[in-house]
Design goal:
Blueprint: H1 2-26, H2 31-59, H3 81-110, H4 114-138, H5 143-149, H6 153-166, H7 185-206, H8 212-219
Helix pairs in contact: 1-2, 1-3, 2-4, 3-4, 3-7, 6-7
């Protein structure tokens, strides 16, 4: 079931990368970043096919492909059009894809099945490149553009963590399934915390963003249940 769910989600990520590619074009981003985003759309379609193939192998008989999941991009209603483009790129690439690389790496470390390991390696290699689109783009921002993004930073990081945790998925009832690429709750949480602590926060700090509030939240366990109140609204 995990690989069938992954097939559906990978296709939706492809829709998100179409949005990212259009945003990069609208912002006149470096051509190489835009080209990578366009390629990422195709990558995610390939990921869908790969995940569906793995699912069929585990089922052992032909199965119907999953229904296409709806895609609704974040509204960011109070942002200007240009800022909204930047937030979409940041959210999908620097945040979501960075988290995805940590989850895939953790899953690969636990996998022992040859089919799952092969598929996870291919997915991971692409997701690393997809995350770099976001970090590379953020590195091109002017001081003024970074200042416009800064007030949105905590909400974006918090929202990404909440989405990963709250997304409905068929968690394995048997730990042996983790060996075949299924994601357990504990594996997911460890990977998300690692991504936040070792990748996302350092990445933003290196680019000159203020991460004090995100660090305070991370030290509290990065709760997404409403128990953490940002200082500016406390």
């Amino acid at each position: 079931m995990h690989w069938l769910e992954r097939a559906a989600s990978e296709r939706r990520v492809g829709d998100s990368f179409a949005l990212v590619a259009n945003a990069l074009t609208a912002l006149h981003a470096p051509d190489e970043l835009t080209a990578l985003a366009r390629r990422a759309v195709d990558d995610e379609v390939r990921h869908q096919g790969l995940s569906f193939l793995v699912a069929q192998r585990f089922f052992g008989h032909p199965i119907a492909p999953p229904a296409r999941l709806p895609f609704a991009p974040p509204a960011h209603r109070n942002a200007s059009p240009s800022l909204r483009h930047r937030l979409h790129i940041l959210g999908q690439c620097a945040l979501n894809e960075t988290s995805a690389t940590a989850v895939l790496e953790a899953s690969l470390a636990e996998a022992t099945g040859a089919l799952a390991k092969s598929a996870l390696r291919e997915l991971l290699a692409d997701e690393v490149e997809h995350a770099r689109i976001g970090w590379g783009f953020l590195g091109t921002l002017s001081a003024e553009e970074r200042a416009a993004v800064q007030p949105w930073l905590f909400a974006l990081v918090h929202g990404n963590m909440r989405t990963w945790r709250d997304t409905e998925r068929a968690y394995p009832s048997d730990d042996s399934l983790v060996a075949h690429g299924a994601i357990s709750r504990s594996l997911l949480e460890r990977a998300l915390q690692l991504a936040l602590r070792d990748l996302i926060i350092p990445g933003f700090k290196q680019l000159g963003f203020d991460t004090a509030e995100i660090e305070r939240w991370a030290q509290a366990g990065a709760p997404t249940d409403g128990s953490f109140v940002p200082q500016e609204t406390a």
